[in-house]
Automatic annotation (TrEMBL):
<dbReference type="GO" id="GO:0004222">
    <property type="term" value="F:metalloendopeptidase activity"/>
</dbReference>
<dbReference type="Pfam" id="PF09768">
    <property type="entry name" value="Peptidase_M76"/>
</dbReference>
<dbReference type="InterPro" id="IPR019165">
    <property type="entry name" value="Peptidase_M76_ATP23"/>
</dbReference>
<keyword id="KW-0378">Hydrolase</keyword>
<keyword id="KW-0999">Mitochondrion inner membrane</keyword>
<dbReference type="GO" id="GO:0005743">
    <property type="term" value="C:mitochondrial inner membrane"/>
</dbReference>
<keyword id="KW-0496">Mitochondrion</keyword>
<dbReference type="GO" id="GO:0034982">
    <property type="term" value="P:mitochondrial protein processing"/>
</dbReference>
<keyword id="KW-0645">Protease</keyword>
<protein>
    <recommendedName>
        <fullName>Mitochondrial inner membrane protease ATP23</fullName>
        <ecNumber>3.4.24.-</ecNumber>
    </recommendedName>
</protein>
<comment type="similarity">
    <text>Belongs to the peptidase M76 family.</text>
</comment>
<keyword id="KW-0479">Metal-binding</keyword>
<comment type="function">
    <text>Has a dual role in the assembly of mitochondrial ATPase.</text>
</comment>
<keyword id="KW-0472">Membrane</keyword>
<dbReference type="GO" id="GO:0046872">
    <property type="term" value="F:metal ion binding"/>
</dbReference>
<keyword id="KW-0482">Metalloprotease</keyword>
<dbReference type="GO" id="GO:0033615">
    <property type="term" value="P:mitochondrial proton-transporting ATP synthase complex assembly"/>
</dbReference>
Amino acid sequence: MSENEKSGNGEEAQRALHGFKWLLRTIPYKTGIGLSEEAKKEYEADIPKRLNEIACKRCEENKEWVLKYSPIVRFMSEQIHKVGGNISEKTVICDHCDELKAGGFNPELGILICQNRVFNRLKFEDTLAHEMVHAYDHCKFEVDWMNLRHHACSEIRASTLSGECRAMNQIVRNGIWKFDRGLQNCVKRRATLSVRGNPNCQSDEQAAKVVNEVFDSCFHDTRPFDEIYK
């Protein structure tokens, strides 16, 4: 057995033991039997930490699976490598996010997946694919992220190509899909929200204006795909 395998088995054993100890604390808390007021307060204070541990474990498991088996993620990883970038387990980070977002891309640090916002493998795949489009754009086109037009274009491409605006996602989230321009409307809405968060953007109106100005050319630019993938 290799040292990595030994380390992995040891970590798994520690997690199992930790989970068992938590179960032993949960039973009296739920039943109210044999639990002091002090122990109850300690348990409740530890709940956020425990939830974060569970979210981290789920995120890491999803990351490992998606990087290995997701067709869109594997394709984007290859394309990013071709333009001088690198996406791997080390550059995709799971962490808790205070903001209402699913992920983020930093040219220096890599990709962040918000473990407390991304709860399943499909959402993880969409979020990672979105951020990988940003990584590709940064390497391929030398994006200036403080330039609102650059930012808007990459956001339009990311929402279009990642699959997060596909019909089924919108039906599940919103209960409705406008078949005439449902995809475009979703992409515009998401891109506008992202641009509004740029420090150089002064208003909702400015964000919408910039997105509309670059929308047609950026929406139809499907590189590195031949067409919209999903």
